Amino acid sequence: EPEVTQTPSHQVTQMGQEVILRCVPISNHLYFYWYRQILGQKVEFLVSFYNNEISEKSEIFDDQFSVERPDGSNFTLKIRSTKLEDSAMYFCASSRVGGISNQPQHFGDGTRLSIL
Amino acid sequence: AQKITQTQPGMFVQEKEAVTLDCTYDTSDPSYGLFWYKQPSSGEMIFLIYQGSYDQQNATEGRYSLNFQKARKSANLVISASQLGDSAMYFCAMREGQRGFQKLVFGTGTRLLVSP
Questions:
Q1: Shortest Cα–Cα distance, B33 to chain A (Å)
Q2: Alpha-carbon dihedral sign for residues A74, A75, A80, A81
Q3: Which of the residues A16, A32, B91, B107 has an alpha carbon 20 to 30 A from that of B4?
């Protein structure tokens, strides 16, 4: 069964450094998402992306964050200048259709980001 | 107000018994979808089951079923014949509206422990 893949599985970065998290969504999916989960807390929405543009973003997704789909397969999340509070598990998700349907968002296994 | 409320931080069940994980939601939109995801200790998010607001019947997927009570705004997950591998965090999530690419809003989760 096709799946969403994320790389790396674990990223350790110094505070202030830029980090890029990578995702390959399921190939026939059109909608892409990033979520994060701070350790021991609930999953929080960051951003959704469709037709090569951001469709919605949360308050967390400030100017330090950006997303890109550079080549039609990869979907990346960039944090320009990382802060300690960016430490979390970051999940990429994709779905074939949006709106009210029984199509779920399929999640990748996540990238654990640790900021030192 | 919380959109998704999971009041049980932890639940214990013996193998082969059934268990119900509670989820209540808050929305004024008549169109919405409810999802349950499983998160094992390895961290990935696994889709389990979906219930649409207009679905006439409760959703079922193998050993998972959803006790959907629309008037009470509850969507409880029932796991029948629990297995040791069911030990994990379980998250209830909601998608509101009819537009495409709506975000998921998650609850705080319930940690289920299945004992032999």
A1: 6
A2: negative
A3: A32
- Alpha-carbon span B91 to A6, nearest angstrom: 21
Q: Is the pLDDT of residue A1 over 80?
A: no
Whole-angstrom Cα Rg for chain A: 13
DSSP chain A: ----EEE-SEEEE-TT--EEEEEE--TT--EEEEEEE-TTS-EEEEEEEETTEEEEE-TT--TTEEEE-SSSS-EEEEESS--GGG-EEEEEEEESS-SSSS-PPEE---EEEEE-
* A40: contact with B, CB 8 A cutoff: no
Largest Cα separation within chain A, whole Å, is 41
> What is the rounded CA–CA span in Å between residue A36 and residue A39?
10
Check pLDDT > 60 for residue B100: no
Q: Six-digit token pair at A113?
A: 């980001």
How far away is chain A from the Cα of B80, in angstroms, using its nearest Cα? 22
Phi, psi (deg, nearest 5) at residue B15 = -50, 140
- pLDDT tens digits along A13-37: 999 999 999 999 998 898 999 999 9
pLDDT 10s digits, A55-85 = 899 999 999 999 999 887 899 999 999 999 9
